[in-house]
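To the wet lab folks,

You asked to see what we're planning to order before we commit. Fair enough. Below is the target structure as tokens, and below that is the sequence we designed to fit it. If anything looks off to you, flag it before the synthesis order goes out.
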């Protein structure tokens, strides 16, 4: 083996044929992938894929991905190669890496599902059990958990308003919301006078808050207290015109399971939507997650359209994030999903 940076150097030069040859010759060398293909340059942690993306070498990027270079490798500033491609004006490379991300994550998802099942055999795992057992704090426009993380923040108000408009476009409909939080979407749904308005909420503090605020007496409202996974049998035989999903502390795998339930709960001409906080701290991971969700929903017979809403992270900063221990959102655009059966 030559220098540690050999793969990086060839990618940086955009030398596709030499790079391919090198990758082929050394593919079975010990630690080739972990040490050589994913070598990070000293000064900033860029990998060969970052280098290929900077100079716009689609051939090198393809060869690297085929050799097993991770699509999502970050440099020391937390920037991925796809972001470098976009910033350098190489949209085709952004697209190539995003598509690779979807492909890999679909396979991982299938494997993940299997592992999850295996885990279940040794006992059911509740992903947000710790959260559900913590005390929560309500202030005027924030709901914060015991770790100082924002469960729901008031900056999402315009998003919740828009979701409600789409889900309940006229009075007299039957709507279902999973996850009450600050009750923002439920407040907006009420404005559209649904015939029935079912809310599923798992956290005991949130449930108590709902009762304190008289939500159990609001027109058409029925509260099901418990995790959606546990209370769903109470909805056996029912279906809805509009369904919204926005929980906390759960994984994408849980949402996937929920989507399977949606196909039974949604009326043929109904509308489903969810809070699109999918990997919302990185634009590439977000893009991959959106496409993954869209692909999986399509596989369940639901077609998704996305409405773009501009976001101002600085305005949010002033409004809501102060004093919290982390952010679940850093993007400049919200992509609101609307899903309908396309059968
Ligand atoms: C982000 S907040 C929802 C915010 C809401 N969309 C609004 O407009 O204010 C998430 C809520 O989901 C609840 N939750 C978390 N896991 C849940 C589960 N498995 N089933 C039902 N509710 C859950 C949390 O307790 C929290 O109240």
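Sequence we intend to order:
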């Amino acid at each position: 083996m030559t220098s540690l940076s050999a793969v990086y150097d060839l990618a940086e030069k955009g030398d596709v044929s030499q790079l391919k040859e090198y990758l082929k010759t050394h593919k079975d060398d010990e630690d080739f992938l972990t040490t050589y293909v994913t070598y990070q340059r000293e000064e900033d942690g860029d990998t060969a894929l970052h280098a290929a993306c900077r100079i716009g070498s689609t051939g090198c990027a393809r060869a690297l991905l085929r050799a097993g270079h991770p699509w999502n490798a970050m440099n020391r500033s937390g920037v991925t190669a796809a972001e470098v491609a976009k910033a350098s004006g190489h949209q085709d490379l952004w697209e190539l890496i995003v598509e690779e991300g979807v492909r890999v994550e679909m396979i991982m998802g299938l494997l993940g599902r299997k592992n999850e099942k295996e885990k279940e055999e040794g006992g059911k795992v509740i992903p947000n059990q710790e959260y559900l057992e913590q005390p929560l704090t309500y202030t005027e426009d924030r709901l914060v958990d015991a770790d100082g993380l924002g469960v729901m923040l008031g900056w999402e108000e315009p998003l919740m308003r828009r979701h409600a408009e789409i889900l309940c476009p006229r009075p007299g409909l039957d709507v279902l919301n999973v996850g009450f939080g600050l009750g923002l979407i439920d407040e907006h749904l009420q404005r559209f006078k649904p015939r029935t308005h079912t809310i599923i909420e798992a956290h005991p503090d949130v449930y108590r808050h709902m009762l304190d605020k008289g939500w159990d007496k609001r027109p058409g409202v029925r509260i099901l207290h418990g995790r959606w996974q546990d209370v769903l049998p109470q909805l056996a035989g029912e279906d809805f015109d509009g369904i919204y999903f926005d929980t906390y502390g759960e994984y994408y795998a849980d949402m996937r399971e929920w989507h399977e339930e949606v196909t039974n709960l949604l009326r043929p001409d109904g509308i489903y939507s969810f809070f699109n906080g999918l990997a919302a701290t990185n634009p590439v991971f977000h893009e991959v997650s959106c496409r993954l969700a869209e692909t999986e929903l399509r596989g369940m017979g639901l077609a998704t359209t996305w409405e773009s809403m501009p976001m101002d992270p600085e305005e949010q900063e002033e409004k809501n994030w102060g004093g919290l221990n982390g952010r679940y959102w850093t993007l400049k655009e919200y992509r609101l999903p609307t899903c309908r059966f396309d059968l």
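Structural context that might help your review: The two ends are 56 Å apart (CA to CA). The mean pLDDT is 93.

Thanks,
Computational group
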